[in-house]
Amino acid sequence: MLSGEGEIITPDCEKPEHFRTVFISDAHLGYKGVRSGELLRFLQGIRCERLIIVGDLIDTWVIKKGWHWTIECDLIIRHLLKMTTQEGTEIIYVPGNHDDSVRRFEGVSFAGVRIEREIIHETADGRRLLVIHGDEFDMMMRQWQKLSHISHITFGWMRFINKMLNSIRRLIGSGYWSLSEWMRRSIQRMVKTEINYAIAATNEARGRGLDGVICGHIHRAEQSMIDGIEYHNTGDWMEDTSAICELIDGTLLLVRTKARTEHPMEGITQAEIDAELTATSELSQSGLVREALV
Prior knowledge:
The protein is of the alpha/beta class. The chain has one domain (2-293): Purple Acid Phosphatase, chain A, domain 2 (4-Layer Sandwich), CATH 3.60.21. The chain is 36% helix and 22% strand. It is built from nine helices and 13 strands. Strands 1-13-12-2-3-4-6-5 form an eight-stranded mixed β-sheet. Strands 7-8-9-11-10 form a five-stranded mixed β-sheet, with helices on one face. Helix 2 runs parallel beside helix 7 (270-279).
């Protein structure tokens, strides 16, 4: 089953939501301005049998151009390790183009996290879906890779302007609006990126005899059926704060932690930091966090 409507969930670590499988992508940890605090709260507020990271968890493109690694980024890595070592969650990491250096470790497991170039996921009701980051289907990026790097830096500046703009909008009681996201969407519509991307992704799944595809990359959370093939895009943790979650019966649900017009949540509190550090202290002592980050 496929659910086309996005559902807003409020992460609550005291009463976590239970899913069979959760798919997230495009967290871009290390890139300034990402919603790392909201991703941490989301992970704390779920329990799942399997977590699949569909690429661009860490943004290696900015390591030499403004690396911004916060305490939230550290806590996300710690929490992922806690999920696999203490909660029994199977974690599969499918790297994307912003963390493509990890792709050379295909088939290797680090601290319980298995790295794969792509996988075939079978839902509870027997549907077989290709899970892949999706940069392979982005013809614009493949043809003008240097332009993609430049635009990535440009969007960083626009997100800085966006933050000031929305501070004013919050004061006057207006909803959240993203200048950087509006610019990204405008460019994508101009070159028909979203349409061509979805068609290319579903054609790949069809050619392999699969029922659908789950991907990320274009930062546009969506669920649709294209000529009989399911298309699921996980969105991102820069604007959408979204994920694809599989229920126990195989239904794939698009979830968000906030409505598009809501202002981002405040950063995590010191109490939340202390609680997560305490919960993952054994991981730090065992060296698992260090192993994951090296």
